Amino acid sequence: MMAWKNGLRPGRIVLAGVAVNTILGGVISFFSVMYSDRIQSAMLWLNGSLSARTWNDVYTLSGYVIVGL
Predict the structure, then answer these.
(1) Domain containing 63: what range?
(2) Count of domains in the chain?
(3) pLDDT band at residue 37, thresholds of 50, 70 and 90?
(4) Is residue 16 a part of any domain in this protein?
(5) What pLDDT shows up at residue 35?
(6) Alpha carbon 45 to its chain's center
(7) Which residues touch 51 (CB under 8 Å, ≥6 apart)?
(8) Which secondary-structure segment (H or E) carries 2?
(9) Nearest-CA neighbor of 43 among 54, 57, 29, 56?
């Protein structure tokens, strides 16, 4: 909706995406500053931590990875 004004244009779509990314990034930064003592596990998950995963999880996802590649 942010990009819609007299039709959709690629430049507006890109700028709207940048604006949404900036706003949501600010929200994440706010929560990471306000709750820095409680956000460690969430940050590990957001960065792609694979802790507590087993080889069965790898086998389950391998089919999807092969199709994706």
Answers:
(1) 10-68
(2) 1
(3) confident
(4) yes
(5) 86
(6) 11
(7) 44
(8) none
(9) 29
